[in-house]
Design goal:
This protein is an alpha/beta fold and 318 residues long. It has 9 helices and 17 strands. The protein has a 7-stranded mixed sheet with strand order 5-4-3-1-6-7-10.
Length: 318
């Protein structure tokens, strides 16, 4: 590592992997918060500064790249995720990330890992970067790490190991490859740091999360936007339950219930009076946004049905 006036950092993010982690902390962890994109950059600078024994203001991210598969515009419109995709693009842009999207074919990402590997190798060997930071967990990147080390570019890998239960009650596990971490010059077991560090003792670690997700207009760089469920490297379609046009009850009597599941832009409510379960979509929220909701929140709603079954209309926080 050269000892110049500043340390030049290149960051390369596997978007699918980061989304798995963000979903875990938002829906399955006690933090109930998503990962902040700007907070991720600050955390990286903090980690590099500690490793190099310098002040954080000497560490500068000069290359920041985000890679992800993306469904077609027509499919995104049909699944009602166009707004959230554009919102997340704004968040990445404000945080200084360059986005690289590859088309999704047959529900699978194609070429994302290859593009990440090629770009990171090219930029680390031609742009005079002092350290390469990979946010990924795939063992396929082991040869990349070895090659970068051969060229004198040390690699830091940010890794998480998480386990969550999806809405179908199935355990989904996201892990960072042991071999990838072993190969890295600077392996960072982020999940261990989070669990072992008391809140309030490490500002950079605390800034990784936001307990509530503000809109882009209020804080463009603060948080990740929700994306369709992703618990594996494949891009999976929305659940079979979709918000068809509901048929409201004639009497429109309001029921009370508790939110017991949140995912992307939909969720499920358990009615207090009889424990019946009702699906709801973000568009049915009144006087609040989807990002204001948390597990176990008390809500009131109008019980209804559509061609998929029971659904909730006019959902309000109690």
């Amino acid at each position: 590592m050269k000892q110049g006036p500043s340390i030049r950092i290149g960051v390369f993010v596997d978007g699918g992997y980061l989304n798995h982690i963000s979903n875990y902390y938002r829906f399955s962890h006690t933090k109930q918060a998503r990962i902040s994109i700007q907070g991720l950059k600050d955390f990286i600078c903090d980690q590099v500064a500690k490793i190099e024994g310098v002040k954080e203001n000497r560490c500068h991210i000069v290359e920041a790249h985000y890679y992800r598969g993306r469904i077609s515009a027509a499919e995104a419109q049909a699944r009602d995720v166009l707004y959230h995709e554009r919102q997340f693009d704004d968040i990445l842009a404000y945080a200084g990330f360059q986005c690289h999207y590859q088309p999704v074919a047959g529900g699978k990402e194609k070429g994302v890992d290859v593009q990440l590997a090629l770009d990171s190798f090219e930029k680390c060997t031609t742009r005079d970067l002092d350290i390469c930071v990979l946010v990924t967990g795939d063992s396929d990147f082991v040869p990349l790490v070895r090659k970068l080390h051969a060229y004198g570019s040390p690699v830091m890998v940010l890794g998480w190991n998480t386990v969550m239960i999806d809405e179908e009650g199935v355990e989904q596990e996201t892990r960072c490859s042991f071999f990838l971490l072993q190969e890295a010059a600077h392996p960072v077991h982020v999940h261990e740091l989070i669990e072992q560090t008391p809140a309030g003792t490490n500002p950079a670690l605390d800034a990784l999360f936001y307990s509530r997700t503000p809109s882009v207009t209020s804080s463009p760089s603060s948080t990740t936007a929700p994306t369709p469920k992703a618990t594996s490297s494949k891009v999976t379609p929305e659940p079979a339950v979709k918000p068809a046009k509901p048929k409201a009850d004639d009497n429109a009597v309001r029921s009370r219930g508790i939110i017991y599941h949140l995912q992307n832009n939909y969720g499920f409510i358990r009615r207090t009076s009889d424990d019946k379960q009702y699906f709801f979509h973000a568009r049915e929220l009144v006087k609040s946004s989807f990002f204001d909701l948390h597990m176990d929140d008390n809500v009131s709603f109008v019980a209804s049905t559509n061609d998929q079954g029971r659904c909730a209309q006019s959902v309000q926080l109690a």
